[in-house]
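Trying the structure run again after the queue cleared.
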Amino acid sequence: IDQIRATAARSRRPALTWRIFALWEDAGVAPDAIVYSIDAKSGAVLAREDAVHALDVDGQVTSVSTAGLYPPDHPLGTATETTAMPGITVEWLEDLTGASGFVHTDENGNFTIPGVQASAGAPITVTVDYSGKFTNVDNKHGSDFSLSESLTQDTGNLVAMDPARQGLGPVAERLAQANAYRWVNALRQYTKQINPGDTSAD
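Done. C-alpha cells:
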C-alpha cells in the first residue's frame, strides 16, 4: 500500500499498488535499477525511484607525451602519443558543498573519489598537473602545466592532459614536463618489476 496525492483536496490517500523492480545489467557497465509503484486498480504509475545510488566518482587521467627521448621537432624526434598517468595527484572540489580533497591514480591512471556524486547540476572540479606520489615536475623556465576539468557523471570520466594544445608557454616546455613525468614513473615501474623490494624510488 502506497500513498497517492488526491488532486481535489491536495491531500494523500492510501492506494493498493504493485511494486515492480526493473534491473538492467551489462558487462563492463554500471547497473541501472528502478522501482515503480503501479496503481493496482488503474494501472497508472504512481511513483518511480532509483534503486542504484552511486557514492563514488571515478575516472582516468591520460596525457600526451613523446614516445622517445627527443621532442617531435627534433631531427631524431618521435610522434606524440597518449598514455595513462600513474600515481598522479588529482585534487578535487565538490562545487555544490565546497568539500575538497585529493586522491592518486593507480598504475593504469584510474582514480576514485569516495563518498561523492557528480552531475551536470552539481559537478566535481578536478585539477591535475605533473606531480604525484613519486614525481614532482617543476618547470624552471616558466609556469607549470595545469589542467582543471568539471566531472558531470559518477563513472567513466576522462581527464585528458594535452600539453601540445593546452596550457601556457612554449609547446616544447609543456611536452618536456609530460615526458619527465612519464619516463621517471616508467623507470620506477621497471625497477619494481626487477626488484619489488627496492624502495629507493618510493
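The CA atoms of residues 145 and 168 lie 7 Å apart. Worth checking whether this holds up in the mutant runs.
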